[in-house]
Design a protein that fits this description.
This protein has helices spanning 3-13, 66-76, 108-114, 118-127, 165-185, 246-252, 346-352, 357-367, 373-376, 379-387, 431-447, 465-489, 500-522, 542-568, 572-590, and strands spanning 58-62, 83-87, 103-106, 129-131, 137-140, 160-164, 195-198, 201-208, 214-220, 229-234, 236-239, 273-275, 283-289, 294-295, 300-301, 307-311, 322-325, 335-341, 391-392, 396-398, 403-405, 413-416, 422-423. Helices cover 35% and strands 17% of the residues. The protein is globular, with a radius of gyration of 25 Å. The two termini are 20 Å apart. It has a six-stranded mixed sheet with strand order 7-2-1-11-22-21, sandwiched between helices. The longest helix has 27 residues, at 542-568. It is an alpha+beta fold. A hairpin with a 4-residue loop joins strand 14 (294-295) and strand 15 (300-301).
Length: 592
């Protein structure tokens, strides 16, 4: 699709491209065991013990979300063959969790990993709503007298897939379960590692053992009154437990009373670096619309796989709002609708003042006179929405430390993947994809392949786990740093917030992106377009993406300085300094 259409949709979508609550579907995965203690068994009948097998390498993965499950699949397969114990704090990772209520857009970057597991890719294509580029979008004006425009057609491009978080977790669980069942039936697959998934287990501590292995202690969270703890012994511990990773926290902030050991002697590199983007601090909660609801006054039926942005008639800084709906494959799913605002918005003020569901409904009826809320949404849903605490978009953060290994034998260690390394607001659509890219990079490092290309490396395969993890950290850390820069500047103004600072920022951001698009066209592609417009291109690393953007920025500095010198006769150094300072301020605050 054209760069112009890409920019146009970014400006129109507003609050749509963000967190979204998946429709709640009753699901009880057979993969999760209910007990988790010694002697319990999984769906495959494999015993769960506190001590790892002695004949195989063992790994404990902390975090049962998509990245943790993807890591389990990867490490259990050739050529790694780890036996896996995966511990998850929630009762069931695939169940609905209102604090994790969003859709993933698994783009070509993330599909580098999914396509290595045909069953995962098959389920993703079957259950995900396909997206081939910017488009398939409708903006609904707030004023009912204004006509609803036609849907912007979808553009041709490489396929990405919208899928609810619980749907992504479920398909990964199913792929693991099928693999374990095949392992039991087909003795030729016996080398494949076992995978035990234990819910209601929070990681408490890591402790190195005399033999070089690591003891992972977990706390049972099912019943807070029962202080039951368990220990697991592992050669490798993987922290895949999100932005508030307990594994990373243990490495970054060891107890001052604990004896220093190889796990805790590098705390600084595991401490996060944080920056606020224009989207950081926004608050979001979800109102559930019925599937196929009608848009008055012409009663246009909505389509489940179309993106909608419904504007309010309000225009003030504390009462303007835009409702965003992302695609779902199932036509019978409710349409979760994102409400994203600054914390001082009327929606949150109503909650602070103890507003009831009826109060919130009355406010929305005034803001959206086009919609017939009486017939669309029941009173119970209004009450649920009124009392919901919602979610706050995080700051952009990352840590440079991704691994630590034992100095004794070099074959035991701890490694981080996913949000445990990097976290940011959802506006660039790279969260799940960056996490899967971490898993892919870890797999390549362990195999001794080139981490960037996946090709066979000219050097010898790593002799120890330590060598592999050090390569993973060395290559991946600069990539993560560039990813966070993209998250800070990529598209933080898409939520169309009405405050003056947001409007000014949005205008400057749009001018910046439009200028780079124009230069890209005039130079016949020699000058790269804005980084956000190439974010899904799997052939370009984040480092290369941001390096290209920086080169364009330097060129703009230079041209502007020369123009100032020609027009005003200003000293070149002074002109360059003034322009550089101004453009640095714009690009720093309003994005590349």
């Amino acid at each position: 699709m054209s760069s112009f259409n890409s920019l146009l949709l970014l400006l129109l979508v507003g609050s749509s491209l963000a967190f979204q609550r998946p429709a709640l579907v009753a699901h009880k995965s057979a993969l999760f065991t209910s007990g988790g203690g010694t002697g319990a068994s999984s769906s495959t009948g494999m015993p769960i013990t506190a001590t790892a097998p002695t004949t195989k390498k063992s790994a404990v993965i902390v975090g049962g979300g998509p990245v943790g499950l993807a890591t389990a699949l990867t490490l259990s397969n050739a050529p790694h063959y780890y036996d896996i114990t995966l511990v998850e704090q929630a009762p069931q990772a695939s169940g609905y969790d209102p604090t994790k209520a969003y859709l993933y857009l698994v783009n070509p970057r993330g599909q580098v990993w999914t396509k290595r597991f045909p069953r995962v890719q098959e389920l993703l294509e079957e259950r995900g709503s396909v997206n081939t580029g910017m488009g398939n979008f409708v903006t609904v004006p707030g004023d009912p007298s204004e006509p609803v425009p036609d849907r912007l057609p979808a553009k041709d491009g490489e396929a990405s897939y919208w899928i609810p978080r619980h749907g992504m977790v479920t398909l990964l669980e199913e792929a693991i379960q099928e693999q374990q069942q095949q392992k039991e039936k087909d003795k030729t697959s016996s080398d494949i590692g076992s995978i035990q998934v234990l819910p209601c287990k929070a990681c408490l501590s890591l402790e190195p053992q005399d033999n070089g292995q690591i003891e992972v202690t977990v706390q049972d969270t099912k019943d807070p009154t029962v202080r039951f703890q368990q220990s697991f012994i592992a050669d490798l511990v993987v922290g895949a437990d999100g932005a508030n990773s307990a594994v990373r926290q243990f490495l970054a902030h060891p107890s001052p009373t604990a004896k220093t050991n190889w796990l805790t002697d590098q705390p600084k590199k595991f401490r996060t670096h944080r920056w606020a983007s224009a989207a950081s601090g926004l608050r979001m909660k979800v109102l559930q619309f019925p599937p196929g609801f009608l848009i008055p006054p012409s009663n246009i039926p909505t389509q489940s796989e179309t993106i909608y942005a419904i504007r309010s008639v309000n225009t003030g800084p504390k009462d303007y709002i835009s409702l965003g709906l992302l695609p779902v494959k199932d036509t019978n799913f409710v349409r979760p609708t994102n409400v994203i605002t600054r914390p001082n918005h009327d929606v949150w003020k109503l909650q602070q003042e103890g507003g009831t569901g009826a109060d919130v409904k009355a406010w929305f009826q005034k803001a959206f006179p086009r919609l017939d809320f009486d017939s669309m949404i029941q009173d119970a849903e209004w009450q649920r929405f009124a009392s919901a605490q919602g979610t706050t978009f995080p700051k952009c953060q990352y840590c440079t430390g991704m691994q630590v290994t034992s100095p004794n034998n070099g074959n035991t260690g701890v490694v981080l993947v996913g949000d445990a390394i990097h976290a940011f607001p959802p506006d660039i659509g790279q969260g799940i994809n960056a996490g899967l890219a971490d898993v892919e990079a870890l797999d390549r490092a362990l195999k001794g392949k080139d981490i960037v290309t996946g090709n066979d490396s000219s050097s010898a395969p790593p002799a120890t786990l330590a060598e592999a993890l050090e390569t993973y950290e060395r290559v991946r850390a600069p990539e993560v740093k560039s990813l966070i820069r993209l998250a800070r500047f990529g598209s933080p103004y898409q939520y169309r917030q009405p405050e003056y600072r947001d409007r000014v920022g949005r205008t400057l951001w749009t001018m910046n992106v439009a200028l780079r698009m124009l230069l890209n066209k005039l130079s016949m592609g020699l000058i790269p377009q804005a980084a956000i417009l190439s974010a899904m291109d799997k052939s370009v690393t984040y480092r290369k993406l941001m390096r290209r953007s920086d080169i364009t920025t330097v060129a703009l500095y230079s041209v502007a300085a020369l123009v100032l010198r020609q027009i005003g006769g200003i000293n070149a150094v002074v002109a360059g300094g003034v322009v550089a300072t101004a453009l640095w301020f714009i690009t720093y605050w309003f994005g590349k």
